Structures are given as structure tokens and as C-alpha cells.
Amino acid sequence: MRELVLALLLACAPVTAPRAAACTAAPPAAERGALDEINRFRARNGRAPLCYNSRTDAAARWLARDMAAKDYFSHTDGLGRDGGRRLAAFGYAWRWWGENIAAGYATWHTAIATWERSPEHRANLLSPHFREIGLGRAYRAGSTYGTYWTADFGARR
Predict the structure, then answer these.
(1) Contact at 8 Å (CB) between 108 and 115?
(2) Crossing angle of helices 119-126 and 108-117, rounded to 10°
(3) How far apart are CA 148 and CA 63, in angstroms?
(4) SS3 content of the chain, % helix, strand, coil (to 5)
(5) Which of 84, 93, 134, 149 could join 60 in a cystine, given CB atoms 3.0 to 4.6 angstroms apart?
């Protein structure tokens, strides 16, 4: 009987979102709203917030700019690297990594809302493994999609 009572008490315990260590850096102003939106989505789904990281940010910005400049849409960049290799090239020693890309959307909000509805992208947004994020966007008039969006997720070794 004692095991049953204990199980009922545990089942009734309040569920709170996990806490993360305090973030020490802030993203550029243009991406602050996007990070806040992603972290609100994570909180609604019981996940800890992500912290901005300048190295994941540099990799994300580089991919968005490369896609815009060379008019392509792919996780494999113009140098043939996937996200993990690109993050390593920017000095991010990752244990876990993930990447979301989007193109053709007018705002961060529409890109993020689309990721939330896509099972693969949603998994990256909500992964409990990720601790940090970088966000990139680039626009090029005359390109196939106009605006390119990148979110690079990671957890360091």
C-alpha cells in the first residue's frame, strides 16, 4: 500500500519548466524577439530556455548569408559542410547540434511558426539536449526566396 501512496503523490506533484543556467550574452537586437519567441514556445512545452551563443550565431548568420548570396536552400553549405562541421569551423565544440532553415518568409515570426508546425523542426525547437542557439537571416533581392533564415542549436562538450 505504501508504494501506491507514494506513486499517487509523485503523480500529483506540480510540473514546472526546467530551469537553465543564467545566460551571459544577448543576441543582436534584430534577433532578440526571435529568441524570446522560441523560448516562450519551449516554456509552453516544459523546456528550459536557450541561451544565445556568439559562435552558434556566427555559424547561423554565415549560412543564411551564403544561401542568399549563392541562391540555394540547403543544410549543406556552399563549402560542402553540414551544420556540425560548420559549427566546429566557427569554434563551437558541440556534443549535440541541430539546425532549422527557412526561406521566403517575411518575418522571424512566420519562419518560427512554420518550424513549430513541422515535426522535424519542432523536434529541434523542443529538444531537451540543446542549451544554446544562434540565429541568422539574410536578404538578397532577385534571389529565389528573398529572405533566408537559420537557427543553429547546440550543447557544448
Answers:
(1) no
(2) 100
(3) 9
(4) 45, 20, 35
(5) 134
CA 44 to chain centre: 16
**8 A C-beta contact, residue 116 and residue 125:** yes
| Nearest Cα to Cα of residue 41 among 134, 104, 122 | 122
Angle 124-39-10 (CA atoms, 0-180°, nearest 5)? 85
Amino acid identity, residue 72?
A: Y
At 70, which amino acid appears?
A: K
The pLDDT tens digits for 20-38 are 456 878 888 889 999 999 9
Show the cell assigned to 144. 529565389
Q: How many Cβ atoms from other residues are within 10 Å of residue 85's Cβ?
A: 14
Instruction: Judge if pTM exceeds 0.70.
Output: yes
Task: Report how far residue 119's alpha carbon sits from residue 116's, in angstroms, rounded to the nearest whole number.
Answer: 8
- Residue with C-alpha cell 529565389? 144
Phi-psi domain of 128 (left: phi exceeds 0; alpha: psi -120 through 50; beta: other): alpha
Residues 79 and 69: their CA atoms lie apart, in Å, by 13
Q: What is the pLDDT of residues 109-153, one digit of tens each?
A: 999 999 999 999 999 999 999 999 999 999 999 999 999 999 999
